[in-house]
Amino acid sequence: MDSRLKTELREANEQCMTMLIDMATRDGAPSFDLLRIIAPQLKALDREALVRVSERPYLLVDFRFQDTPWWHSLESGNASTSDTLTWNAHAHRAAFDLAQRALTLAWHSVDTQRAAAILNLGISPGVADTLRHLPLQEINRIADTHVHAMTPPWLNRPLMWCRLLDAAKDGRMESLRFVDRLGAQLLAADLLTDPA
């Protein structure tokens, strides 16, 4: 992974974490189960821990990157709009901005650094092929019309998130390396679930 991709990855991760922290600290119940579970840890992150989370070598945003049939249906204009999450009204604009950033990062990465896109962004080869053929304007439209398809990765694995946030707060290199390896293993395992 080159330095440009590392920088873009860190910036997208920081934007994601800032949005999740904001959602966790607002009044009212968090809008999805994972956020309810990790909200106390999110609220306890200081700036240094936020930076450590953001520097992980994998994208903390998923956009159905392991679902080749869904991406094919997007390409043909038949994608389902009943997506995964409902973002709170106050988070919708931030979610759109993050979706646009994550999809642009993915689109650019599959064209210039395919292996890194697959390994570090968790994009299946079939989705990478589809993304590569979409014009940039279509990426922006997808970010707008399918923002609810964007989720944190490991949405149903709160233990991964707890370990990640604990390691970032702790700051010890061995803890961070452990979550880096665990995250890479989970992304690889998720790639095997692509129904294509």
3D architecture notes:
With 196 residues, this protein is an all-alpha fold. It has one domain. The protein contains 10 helices and no strands. The mean pLDDT is 89.
Itemize the secondary structure elements and their pairings.
Elements (H helix, E strand, L loop, with lengths): L2 H23 L7 H11 L3 H8 L13 H9 L15 H21 L1 H8 L3 H8 L3 H10 L12 H13 L2 H19 L5
Distinctive features:
10 helices, mainly alpha, 196 residues
Count of separate structural domains: 1
Calculate Rg over CA atoms. 16 Å
As a percent range, the share of helical residues equals 55-70%
- Gross morphology is globular
N-to-C terminal Cα separation, in Å? Answer: 26 Å
Number of helices: 10
Q: Could you write a compact summary of the structure shown?
A:
The protein has helices at residues 3-25, 33-43, 47-54, 68-76, 92-112, 114-121, 125-132, 136-145, 158-170, 173-191.
